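Students often ask what a holo structure prediction actually looks like on paper. The answer is less mysterious than it sounds. You provide the chain, you provide the ligand, and the output is a string of discrete structure tokens encoding the 3D arrangement of the protein together with flavin mononucleotide.
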Amino acid sequence: MKILFFSGTGNSYATAKLIAGREGMLFDMASSVIEKVKDEYVGIVLPCYCNDIPQKAREFLQKVQIESDYIFAIVTCGLSAGNSFITINNILKEKGLQLSYAKKLVLPDSCIVFATKTEKAKSLLASHQERVNEINSDLSEKIKTPMPKDKKTPTMYTKLLWRLFKGFYKLDDKKTNGRCISCGKCLEYCPVKNIIMQDKKIIFGDSCENCFACIQRCDKMAIQFGKIQVSNATRYYHPIISED
Ligand SMILES: Cc1cc2nc3c(=O)[nH]c(=O)nc-3n(C[C@H](O)[C@H](O)[C@H](O)COP(=O)(O)O)c2cc1C
Ligand code: SF4
Ligand code: SF4
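The corresponding structure tokens follow.
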């Protein structure tokens, strides 16, 4: 089994890892340079960001050659996978392929303004392995699913919604506050390497996926995107990434 994954705060990475087990191989769509992936099972595991898939994953999937009779996609999300499966399937269709199996997996919401309440987050994490076991059982029988019923939101509407969200919270105004100790950890946390440090100052580039991994994982809670700043009550990342 080969799994192509993208992850900011670890939900999709943890899911990919649990599905792959010991035998499967993981490829990070944010950093892998592979051109071709061939296996009996090829999986795509990624988060839904504002109703659709991350741009980096889209670009990777458009470029990579896939050879498999059974392609599955798992979209992790706080509520709904939005257009993610439709986008993935459309990219595959252009290669003469299609999804055999598609399932969304609800996990704690990494979007700070919609943070999942603590008790609910705990219960979602507690049942994570069990829900992945169900997926693994389906995969072992090569079960085929119809395309998920998540309502297709028109792309224009999704783009407009994202622009409004970004504008309202001023997401492009990325900065660190006085708590930053220049430890450089956020440079590692960023899946797309959009952060650099110059003269002990953190600088954000232009290829941000707004995955919120840097804000969520900075121990000093020193990163702020416009009006968005994490607090102890809203902070979240999947526990598996601190174990790794
Ligand atoms: C900027 C942003 C936008 C998001 N948009 C959605 C969304 O439209 N629908 C949804 O159900 N969850 C949304 N989420 C929640 C994530 O899809 C969810 O927490 C996912 O499991 C995170 O995966 P990751 O930890 O692998 O990055 C969003 C999260 C972020 C950071
Ligand atoms: S923002 Fe946080 S993680 Fe990044 S260098 Fe500063 S203290 Fe470290
Ligand atoms: S800069 Fe922060 S929010 Fe943007 S992609 Fe990197 S980790 Fe994610």
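The first strand starts at residue 2 and ends at 5.
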